[in-house]
């Protein structure tokens, strides 16, 4: 079990990791998702003993380890780069730090590389060796710092798949950090969102997607489209959200209108997921959702078996999930619709409001 209490590490007044508490039960697999500078790598380095915290205590299996050197903590650490010893072969790299022989199992398919030196390996092969070095060690806690960041998309997908299979059968306590929501959702039993040096929310992937605490969490977990606007109309039963440029309007639930009325400003932000945007027949507005009239398709990216479209009107952008084989052509104006019960709402501070 991994436990942090009030752990912090600041490099400037608002740069680094602010005091945080974290519990990762034995055998859990937690992925922390956050942008560059959010404190992800700093957190792992503190746990591994490579840096000292400014404040707080770190416990491994109930033992305080703040003053325990890294090699005695029972922690295996994979940095962003493979970190292999250039003068050692793959076999010798795998044996570093081990008191027992290297297992003969080959979870990452590197048996044919054992006699090679790091300079003879591709980027994907180096990362496979680095991951194999961790998963074959007798360490109670595994730490992974952006393990796929240096890989191209093909290698990234392959190694993510391999690691997912291995972690799924592991009883180790695992903490992985990444900036990629695909990595987080694919590998984590639980997912935490780290922003501004603080854990913004912690839960399952489904909980974070359906009930994000704030717009930062919602944007981090999915490709959420955010549209700023305000509530118009004094009567809560007929109140509407209207975007700043007037291109989007939504009749909002009365309960939401009453909550906004208690705020110091009627400003509101609408959040919409790509999978919740649908094609709408021309000249047919829906009273039960967000209507997007005449939005231009400005890009279409293949994603899995479908497409991710980006549509625009004025300064606003909305991403649309498209499962058909033939998406609208770029430059085509299209009318869209999103059901009101699938809309997310955020107040002027960025906090989510229940509709």
From TrEMBL:
Instruction: State the superkingdom.
Output: Bacteria
UniProt keyword annotation of Phosphoprotein present: no
Task: List, alphabetically, the Gene3D superfamilies matched.
Answer: 2.40.50.100, Nucleic acid-binding proteins, P-loop containing nucleotide triphosphate hydrolases
State the UniProt keywords alphabetically: ATP-binding, Cell membrane, Membrane, Nucleotide-binding, Translocase, Transport
Alphabetized InterPro entries for the sequence: AAA+_ATPase (IPR003593), ABC_transporter-like_ATP-bd (IPR003439), ABC_transporter-like_CS (IPR017871), ABC_transpr_FbpC (IPR015853), ABC_transpr_MalK/UgpC-like (IPR047641), Mo/tungstate-bd_C_term_dom (IPR008995), NA-bd_OB-fold (IPR012340), P-loop_NTPase (IPR027417)
Q: Describe the location of the ABC transporter domain by residue ranges.
A: 2-221
Which Pfam families is this protein grouped with?
Answer: ABC_tran
This chain belongs to the protein called ABC transporter ATP-binding protein
């Amino acid at each position: 079990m991994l436990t942090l209490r009030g752990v912090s590490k600041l490099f400037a007044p608002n740069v680094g990791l602010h005091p945080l508490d974290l519990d990762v039960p034995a055998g859990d697999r937690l992925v922390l998702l956050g942008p560059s500078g959010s404190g992800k790598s700093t957190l792992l380095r503190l746990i591994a003993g490579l840096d000292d915290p400014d404040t707080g205590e770190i416990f491994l299996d109930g033992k305080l380890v703040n003053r325990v050197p890294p090699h005695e903590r029972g922690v295996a650490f994979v940095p962003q780069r493979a970190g292999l010893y250039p003068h050692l072969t793959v076999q010798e790299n795998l044996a570093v730090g081990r008191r027992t022989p290297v297992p003969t199992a080959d979870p990452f398919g590197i048996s044919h590389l054992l006699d090679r030196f790091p300079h003879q390996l591709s980027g994907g092969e180096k990362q496979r060796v680095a991951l194999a070095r961790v998963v074959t060690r007798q360490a109670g806690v595994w730490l992974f710092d952006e393990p796929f960041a240096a890989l191209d998309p093909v290698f990234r997908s392959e190694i993510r798949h391999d690691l997912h299979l291995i972690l799924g059968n592991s009883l180790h306590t695992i903490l992985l950090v990444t900036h990629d929501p695909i990595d987080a959702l694919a590998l984590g039993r639980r997912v935490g969102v780290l922003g501004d040096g603080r854990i913004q929310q912690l839960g399952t992937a489904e909980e974070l997607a359906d009930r994000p605490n704030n717009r930062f969490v919602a944007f981090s977990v999915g490709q959420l489209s955010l549209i700023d606007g305000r509530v118009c109309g004094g009567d809560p039963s007929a109140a509407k959200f209207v975007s700043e440029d007037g291109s989007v309007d939504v009749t909002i639930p009365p309960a939401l209108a009453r909550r906004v009325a208690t705020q110091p400003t009627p400003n509101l932000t609408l959040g919409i997921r790509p999978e919740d945007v649908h094609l709408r027949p021309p000249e047919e507005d829906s009273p039960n959702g967000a209507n997007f009239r005449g939005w231009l398709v400005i890009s279409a990216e293949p994603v899995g078996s479908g497409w991710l479209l980006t549509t625009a009107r004025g300064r606003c952008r909305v991403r649309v999930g498209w499962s058909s084989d033939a998406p609208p052509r770029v430059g085509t104006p299209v009318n869209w619709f999103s059901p009101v019960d699938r809309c997310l709402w955020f107040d002027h501070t960025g906090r989510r409001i229940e509709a």
